[in-house]
Specification:
alpha+beta; 8 helices; DNA binding; cytoplasm; TATA box-binding protein-like 1; transcription
């Protein structure tokens, strides 16, 4: 009897130790599965075993990829779709500083040269003696005359041909030319204003970046760079016909036949020099911040007068009709 009781006690102790060992093993397996798969509900067919069958993690579907794959930041990985249990995706806000600002290029017209004819012989000595704001240049065989408004200078030859310089627009150049013709008419000449045309336009602009002119001149055969003769690159355009002087600071000088050709030349040269732009320095970044700070705030949106449909109750409809009758 005692021997049977001792055997029963040893059996109970052995079973207890076996159960404890199995329980500890189950806890370890469960912790391993949670670490590999996150806090996810295991499918009923796995029985606590997760197999991968040799498939890499990046080729598995998104619902099969462990959660910790999305949280690792040690090595750059391919973008993965967000986890199913991560909640709503927060919208990504892009600020104006992150977006590259559209460059604004101001073209300044510095000089418009025009020519016209008065169709009569001019006595330069008589103009020099009786004219106002004139200068007789005997060595050149011409007389120069100046105006205050618009501030221009005319070169007058005895043949009746006149060249006017100093205007800042084509309309201003024509006004100055007619005033010179009127001044000559007051001096007693039979003047007829004919053959007016704009000969040359000089414009300048500044790119919002520096330019690597050496690399630019090597890239394009139309560019001519002689640093011993001129610090800028001479670039010739044939459509529109224009000549440009490009400097390393970003300044560009354009010579063309009209104001529209100057604008077209700047539009043509901008994508070419943009490829050879210099990186921004700290001073350029500070200047850009100052421009943004000095920029005026946006104007308020205009009030809209769009009509909207409003549903009224019976009492409100009666009151509205009464108010309409009162206005009538």
């Amino acid at each position: 009897m005692k021997i049977a009781l001792v055997k029963t006690a040893f059996t109970v102790i052995f079973i207890r130790e076996k159960v404890s060992t199995l329980f500890q093993q189950a806890v370890v397996d469960m912790a391993t599965l949670i670490q590999e798969n996150g806090i996810k509900e295991l499918s009923k067919g796995t029985h606590g075993v997760v197999t991968n069958h040799g498939i890499s993690t990046h080729s598995v579907a998104s619902h099969m990829v462990p959660d910790h794959e999305y949280c690792e930041t040690g090595e750059p990985q391919e973008p993965q779709p967000p986890c199913a249990n991560s909640g709503q995706d927060a919208p990504v806000e892009t600020t104006a500083e992150d977006e590259e600002e559209t460059p604004e290029i101001d073209i300044m017209i510095n000089n418009v040269v025009c020519s016209f004819s008065v169709k009569c012989h001019l006595n330069l000595r008589q103009i020099a003696l009786n004219g106002v704001n004139v200068e007789f240049r005997r060595e050149n065989g011409m007389v120069t005359m100046k105006l205050r408004r618009p501030y221009t200078t005319a070169s007058i030859w005895s043949s009746g041909r006149i060249t006017c310089t100093g205007a800042t627009s084509e309309d201003q150049a024509k006004i100055a030319a007619r005033r010179y013709a009127r001044a000559l008419q007051k001096l007693g000449f039979q003047v007829r204003f004919q053959n007016f045309r704009v000969v040359n336009v000089l414009g300048t602009c500044r790119m919002p970046f520096g330019i690597r002119i050496i690399a630019f001149s090597k890239r394009y055969k139309e560019a001519d760079y002689e640093p011993e003769l001129h610090p800028g690159v001479t670039y010739k355009l044939y459509n529109p016909k224009a000549t440009l002087k490009i400097f390393s600071t970003g300044g560009v000088t354009i010579t063309a036949r009209s104001v529209s050709d100057v604008q077209s030349a700047v539009e043509r040269i901008f994508p070419l020099v943009y490829e050879f732009r210099k990186p921004r320095t700290a001073a350029d970044e500070e200047l850009l911040r100052q421009k943004k700070a000095a920029r005026p705030p946006p104007a308020p949106a205009p009030l809209t007068t769009d009509l909207c449909l409003v549903t009224l109750s019976d009492d409100e409809t009666v009151e509205a009709d009464a108010d309409a009758d009162a206005w009538e």
